[in-house]
Specification:
The protein has 8 helices and 5 strands, in the order αβαβααβαβααβα. By secondary structure, the protein is α/β, with parallel strands linked by helices. It has a domain of 182 residues: P-loop containing nucleotide triphosphate hydrolases (Rossmann fold), CATH 3.40.50.300.
């Protein structure tokens, strides 16, 4: 008869008797003897071999050989010792290492320096929202700005997060509907949660999105709800001819028709007079635009815009 793992079962063990001939208690139970058990004499039919190896150092076992004590009367003689027992392992604490969860409240406005000092946005933990039409260069500027700061900074692209949806992706170019609107809102909420996680761990972040001034509740108001009043919005708005030229260099579903680009650019013009800082990067390359962005952010920290 075989047990579940293929090792043979020992013959029935009679009370008061040692192991049956041909069966070794040590072979069946390779671990050290436990108190309350007796290994019994070695079978006479087995050839004499080297002296048995003693218990490992530090093991308080039961002495064996002539004169060894017998098992206590209350312990059943047919009991076979099980595997050695170890101290229970304490449960793993419910932690996330050094990564903190986002704070319960919204992200506050970064503290302004003393009146005698000059704000240094390059070494301050910030949350920046870069607004602009398609083709304004938001993604290029945001990536460059995030990669050339003196403090840890993350770039969070709304379009990248929106395109995480593969099967069932609602492309607005195929027609704006409730499904595409829902996926845009879901992507914004996901970006906002990610930004708060980064900020909770002292990592700045810059987000880019085509936020329209004529939809304050869904656009800028939504970002304020997701992140908090500490978010610093900046508008990147080059001329229409520059936007059309840059859009023509795009490919895939991020390339829009000229009519759509012109329509979006016209709606973005509503940011003029809003009080938000606006950068016209029509004649600026990416590194220069990033430096201008630092200057704008320094002024925003010293005198936060009302939005």
């Amino acid at each position: 008869m075989q047990d579940a793992v293929g090792s043979p079962l020992p013959p029935p063990h009679q009370p008061g008797h040692g192991p049956a001939v041909g069966w070794s208690s040590a072979a069946q139970h390779p671990g050290p003897h436990h108190p309350g058990t007796h290994p019994g004499p070695a079978p006479a039919s087995l050839p004499a071999g080297p002296a048995p190896v003693g218990p490992p150092p530090g093991f308080a076992g039961v002495p064996t050989g002539p004169g060894a004590p017998h098992p206590p009367s209350h312990a059943p003689a047919s009991h076979h010792p099980g595997p050695p027992r170890h101290a229970p392992v304490p449960p793993t604490p419910d932690t996330t290492g050094h990564v903190q969860l986002p704070p319960g409240g919204p992200v506050p406005m970064p503290s302004a320096p003393p009146a005698t000092g000059t704000p240094d946005p390059t070494s301050t933990t910030l949350a920046v929202l870069l607004i602009g039409p398609a083709g304004a260069g938001k993604t290029s500027v945001a990536k460059y700005w995030a990669g050339h700061r003196r403090v840890p900074t993350a770039h969070i692209s709304l379009d990248d997060v929106r395109e995480w949806v593969r099967s069932g992706f609602a492309d607005p170019q195929s027609g704006w509907n409730d499904n595409s609107e829902a996926q845009y809102r879901l992507a914004r909420r996901t970006c906002g949660f990610a930004a708060r996680n980064f900020l909770a761990n002292n990592i700045s972040c810059i987000l880019d999105d085509a936020v329209f001034p004529d939809r304050p509740v869904v656009g800028l108001g939504g970002w304020k709800r997701h992140i908090g009043p500490g978010l610093l919005p900046v508008v990147l708005l080059p001329g229409l001819e520059i936007v059309l030229e840059r859009n023509a260099e795009r490919s895939g579903n991020r390339r829009l028709t000229d009519e759509e680009v012109a329509r979006i650019h016209g709606r973005m013009a509503g940011w003029y007079g809003s009080g938000l800082p606006i950068i016209d990067n029509s004649q600026l390359d990416v590194p220069t635009t990033a430096r201008v962005l630092d200057d704008v952010l320094a002024r925003s920290i010293a005198s936060p815009p009302q939005w």
